[in-house]
Amino acid sequence: MSTPSAQVTLHDVTSALEELYPPAWAASWDAVGLVAGDPERPVRRVLFAVDPVARVVDEAAAWGAELVVTHHPLLLRGVTSVAATTPKGRLVHRLIESGIGLYTAHTNADTARPGVSDALAAAVGLTGELRPLDPDPSDPEGLRGIGRIGRLERPMALHEFAELAAAGLPRTAGGVRVAGDPQRTVHEVAVSGGSGDSLLDAARAAGVDAYLTSDLRHHPASEFAEHGGPALLDVAHWAGEWPWLADGAERLRGVLSARGATVETRVSATVTDAWSQAFRGSPEHT
């Protein structure tokens, strides 16, 4: 871990982040960039987290971080007030009162290469050269885009791949849900961090053996399975994006180091998955 430096400002850090994840790569509906913080204030410690929630801010304050970088936006929709009468307003007040900045890298980090899905692909065992599942049409080289397609080191049964994916991702109440023949051979796999059922058709068109993502809905998933598409693996939204945090932190330190600056980084240990428990039905109903 790098030795912290008091000479780095919030502007220096956000400039480095925007070199890695240019805001222009974000979707038109997205809200990325600096949410709170004085660009001229010094930054020594940066906490990376998936969600901008109170428990993450508590963690940042306890560690003495001056900046939190999250994947998910705090204020995705337009607001007319940040009064402390709402949860998001209270969080903004807490950040300002604690002297902690907040920066968001969302769909720009999804699209980047390497980005969110590259880290997810590595976590679930994909190796070699990765290609976008949904290429960014503005990229003439076709390297950027949403999702990734890659190969496992060796072909394996679907249930083996599910176990490999579960071992590579943080534990959640929902685990890894699977649709498909457990004995089906899986070699080429598509992944997409975050909600990915909008890319079901792209996964089918790519001819992959399996598609791993989050937040798959009942009807699209069941229709997909009925028409002979790839096997499906549904992981917790938080878990599928969590692997990017360490990668983003490492790359931030790399850019700053090239500029002769250092900050200390930490990946949040706070589990912010929305689902904390799961209960199984009676065997007579299964």
Question: From the coordinates shown, what is the CATH architecture of the largest domain?
Answer: 3-Layer(aba) Sandwich
Q: Major β-sheet, in short? A: 6 strands, mixed
Structural class: alpha/beta
Strand content: 15-25%
| Mean pLDDT, all residues | 94
Helix content: 25-40%
Placed side by side, the strands forming the largest sheet appear as 5-6-8-9-10-7
**Overall spatial form:** globular
Order of helices and strands: HEEHEHEHHEEHEEHEHEHHE
CATH homologous superfamily descriptor of the largest domain: NIF3 (NGG1p interacting factor 3)-like
CATH topology of the largest domain: Udp-n-acetylmuramoylalanyl-d-glutamate--2,6- Diaminopimelate Ligase, Chain: A, domain 1
DSSP strand count: 11
> N- to C-terminal separation?
49 Å
Computed over alpha carbons, the radius of gyration is 20 Å
Total count of domains: 2
**CATH classification class of the largest domain:** Alpha Beta
Nutshell version of this structure?
The protein is of the alpha/beta class. The chain contains 10 helices and 11 strands.
Describe this structure in words.
The chain is α/β, with parallel strands linked by helices and 286 residues long. The protein has two domains: 10-109 and 242-267, 3-Layer(aba) Sandwich (Udp-n-acetylmuramoylalanyl-d-glutamate--2,6- Diaminopimelate Ligase, Chain: A, domain 1); 113-235, NIF3 (NGG1p interacting factor 3)-like (Udp-n-acetylmuramoylalanyl-d-glutamate--2,6- Diaminopimelate Ligase, Chain: A, domain 1), CATH 3.40.1390.30. The protein has ten helices and eleven strands. It has helices spanning 10-20, 54-63, 87-98, 107-111, 116-123, 158-168, 200-206, 218-226, 237-241, 243-258; strands at residues 33-36, 45-49, 67-70, 101-104, 126-135, 145-157, 176-179, 185-195, 210-214, 231-235, 264-267. A six-stranded mixed β-sheet has the order 5-6-8-9-10-7. A five-stranded mixed β-sheet has the order 1-4-3-2-11, with helices on both faces. Strand 8, helix 7 and strand 9 (210-214) form a beta-alpha-beta unit. Helix 5 packs across helix 10 (243-258). It is globular, with a radius of gyration of 20 Å. The model is unreliable at 1-6 (pLDDT under 50). Homohexamer. Keywords: Metal-binding.
